[in-house]
Amino acid sequence: MTSLDVRDMLDLPDSGSARPAKKQKLTAPRPVLKGLAREVQNLSGDNPIAIVPEVSAFKKKRFGSRKPVAKWEQKPFKNSARDGDPLVLRHWRRKTERPPVPPVGEDGNVEMGEGVAPKAEEMVEDSTFAKYNVRVNVPEYTEDEYNAKLQNKDWTKLETDHLVGLAYEYDLRWPVIWDRYEPPLPAPDAPDSLLGLVLPPKIRTMEDLKARYYSVAATMMAERKPPIKMNSVEFNLHEVMSNFNPAIETARKKFAEGAFQRTKEEAREEESLLLELKRILARADKLNEERRELYARLESPPSTGNIGIYSSSQGLQQLLQQLMQASKKRKSLMGNEGISPAAGPSQQASFDRRDSSVRESISGPSGSNNNNNKKGPPPGPSERRQLTDEEERIYGVSRHERLGNSGPIYRHDKISKPVITKSSVQQTKIANVLNELEIPPRLIMPTVEVGEAYESLLQSINVLLDARKLADKLDGEIRIARQQKEEREKAARLEMEMGEALAEAGEGDEVGSGSSDSKTDEVGSGSSGSSDSKTEREKSVARSVRGGSVARSVSQGHKRSASVLSAASDKSTKKQRR
Amino acid sequence: MLDDGKAGKGASARGNSRRTENRTPGPVDSSTYLDLTVFIKEVDHSPPFVKVDDTTSRAHNGGLSTINLVGSADRHEVSAIILDPGYSSVRAGFAGEDTPKSFVNSHYGVSDAGKFTFGDDAIHNPLAGLEIRNPMSKEGIVEDWDTATQLWEYAITSRLTSFKQSDPRTNGLNDPSEHAMDVGEVEEGERTLGEHPLLMTETAWNTPKNREKAIEVAMESWGCPAFWLARNSVMAAFGGGKATSLVIDVGASTASVISIHDGLILKKSVQKSPIAGNWLSSQLRALFASTEPKVNLVPHYAIASKTPVDAGAPAQATYRKYETKIPDSFRALQEERVLTEFKESVVQVWNGMGRLNTVNANGVSNSEYVKSQPGRVFEFPDGANQMWGVERMSVAEGLFDERAALPVPNEPALAKAQTIPEMVRQSLAAVDIDLRPHLLGNVVVTGGTTLINGFTDRLHNELTAMYPGARVKIQAAGLTAERRFGSWIGGSILGSLGTFHQMWISRKEYEEFGVNVVEKRCK
């Protein structure tokens, strides 16, 4: 229906343009428009709306590609997860165009089929699913190892073998292992059967099986690799396995069983009890809260806050403002006189923010304030689910002291720092050690774990270098001591020669050495001390040679005390004496 | 214990029950082994199956078609054949399809001349004078291997492999009763199965000897390149989209309740009883004998014509006379078909609160309540029809309540341990406590007899009453075909997975280790 028809019906005068002319106009867009567009067009009447017909170009493209149909063929494939079994199955694969392979072309393929077959067998593709074939690792042990480490009075080797075999076969699915575990009968020539007794097979619980398996696995793990050398994952596994306690597990299962077999009434009762408990706890919280508030009102608020901030004049001013604010709130009697107009509004604003940190840091403790803070919503982090330690390990959550005392640092410093801070001599030494271990000075893949390992490695290198340094030092000292000893022996020989001449003077030398001995005591012990005493001794020998028999009798008493004081020098003297 | 990535994804849906399970040491548990869980997970992603347990979506998109499967990422078709023999029917088809292409009645006919005829097209002909037999025992395992082999061969060759124009005898288009299968068929089978790996199902209580026989038949008689023997309960669990589940399978000859953990049956949990479709038929016969007036069960083939009669009135039908004597076994099979019809359209399980004979809150027993409700009319082939009220529920009540079972002459009374709730209880009692909540959350119901009206509702009621603390979730396919062919569908899923192809027992392995390779491999 057009507007013309409406006019016609209502006997309205014709709007002017002739009917056939209009029709002529309308015919042009009409065939293009379809559906809703056409109806809209019709509604518009004399003043046609410009409707742009939708061009559906994609329909043309449908027939655009005139490619030949994709060809598929049944291709043989093997599965490398089948342990070398040559089963070749066939599956459909898109035919790939490889011109060089069929020299005759498409038609020749049929005839060629037989001839090409052996060649094709060789390059049979492997199943893409073979990689999913992963077996669980179970402990392996030899007869000797079993006898040495794994003996158990409850388990024979046969049974243990059977258990480990099942564990491998069923990939450690314990319910299945327990279900399928049947104690193997001992071989007829086994010593047990000589008695003629057939022992009733032991009924083993899943906990027994687990305990045995884990103990075997943990023992063999420690045997293959000492716990000190294990990495953290292995060590944790070892810990878990060696700490398995079947008693706890049994008790847990008993509880689980009890919980599982609750009747409906019991379940409902427990639920209601839990609800009750919750209610009581909530009420207790409220009660405590009220009580605390009451106490806070009764007692003067203890000044737990830091009064240091009030020590300056500015701090005092703040305190004054704060107190006035508090009293104003209580009675709103006090005027504004104490506050400077500039500071007023801003302070007001900060005070009105109930749980702003600004306020918390400056406000003195007052009962009502504390309550307000407690009633507020808990701070953000606690809303997040707290991960347990285990979960953190699983998800790889680690916490870093990023902003330590020294401010922000680059993480790579962690690697370079231990090296750079050393002296250049040390650096080259460390580099040498790393070279020796074939570890690049800059890590290729510095993950957290690798970084940790690297750090511990550097630490041990430092220890090593320290030890080496000490060893060198000690070596040097030993060498010196040896030289000294030789010299001393030389001197002793000299002395002996002289002693024959001056028999009396040999003892007299102790007079001088008495004081020198006490001196060496201060200097220190060990070889360094002895070298000092040596020089002293030489001097004193010379002196005594020169001095002759001066004050011979006095030296006796001194000698004794001196020898007590310095064991080191004493030894050297004795050596010398000999 | 860490959950490995793949299992973890799937496990998240299982909810809280998983948490209590097996949290003992041994992160070794988490190794990414190839397990059957992975198989199921892959099925979940694969587009053609969309979601294995989502029955409605499959119904709408016209089911799983083979066209999409080729070249799909997870699927890996090697044109394996899945064979799922049961007491009442043999299901066979290609892996990756959603229903078996070949569905053959397990009953076969033996003519006077001793020739065998197979298939529904042939065995229901009263003129042939066929003796009806079944190669399967009452426990659902093969008794007569020679015939079973021929029957399966028929199931495979008639629809799946040898679709050849040249041989009209076996393509199922002609009347095979006139052309009995001859010895030449065996050679035919040998050639045709030569390219297809065969995945066969078996019951959980199959004997080792039978299993060895199965691989022998597949390898020696049919010449399969590869073979695998799977438990039908595990397959049903896979068909339900679960790797760990409690499978309640109520078929024709046996009902079984079996716990499955990660695609492996727990042998201690296997429970079976004869309370299944055939038992229900015997209940029906007992009911028909005890009603007043007695219901005369006359199969269709014996009726020449009938005239409509009022409800409860005696039938007015003319009976067909046969010159040859119709064997009793033939009549029994035909009667069974009528009973099946009756079971499908009338029989119902009480699915309200409690049991049929318990008294509800108003002091009225449930059976009284049912009596007050309108019944259902069933017209027998001879025209006799009757309204079935509370009887239609009382016949099936024995599935859940042994005291409600009707006494059947010459058969021992039902024991409590044979009812389905009791079997569930015993099955669960034989598995680890950590597993039980998980199993109850993944109950898979399969088998044709579970299609009785109200069965899953009742089962859910019984289980929640038995385990009030646990969350019971029953997974029962909504489509009739999926419920009946649950284990075949599971086999179809398994056989079309890329990761399964390393599991096949190849011909070489068979030749190397002999028949007992099946005991070693198919656990």
TrEMBL record, chain A:
Spans annotated as Disordered: 1-30, 327-388, 502-578
Domain annotation DAMP1 SANT/Myb-like: ranges: 128-221
Domain of life, per lineage: Eukaryota
GO biological process: chromatin remodeling; DNA repair; negative regulation of transcription by RNA polymerase II
Compositionally biased spans, kind Basic and acidic residues: 1-10
Subcellular location: Nucleus
Single Gene Ontology MF annotation: transcription corepressor activity
Keyword tags: Chromatin regulator, Nucleus, Transcription, Transcription regulation
Alphabetical list of Pfam families matching this protein: SANT_DAMP1_like (PF16282)
Record keyword Ion transport present: no
Cited InterPro entries: DAMP1_SANT-like (IPR032563), Swc4/Dmap1 (IPR027109)
A Gene Ontology cellular-component term: NuA4 histone acetyltransferase complex
Compositional bias segments (type: Low complexity): 363-375, 542-555
Main location class: nucleus
Protein family membership: Belongs to the SWC4 family.
Protein name: SWR1-complex protein 4
Species: Lachnellula arida
UniProtKB/TrEMBL annotation, chain B:
Residue numbers spanned by region Disordered: 1-29
Annotated InterPro entries: Actin (IPR004000), Actin_CS (IPR004001), ATPase_NBD (IPR043129)
Database matches in Pfam families: Actin
Stored PROSITE patterns: ACTINS_2 (PS00432)
Matching SMART domains: ACTIN
Leader sequence residues: none
Coiled coil location: none
Family: Belongs to the actin family.
PANTHER family listed in its UniProt record: ACTIN
Protein name in the entry: Actin-related protein 4
Annotated source species: Lachnellula arida
This protein's encoding gene: ARP4
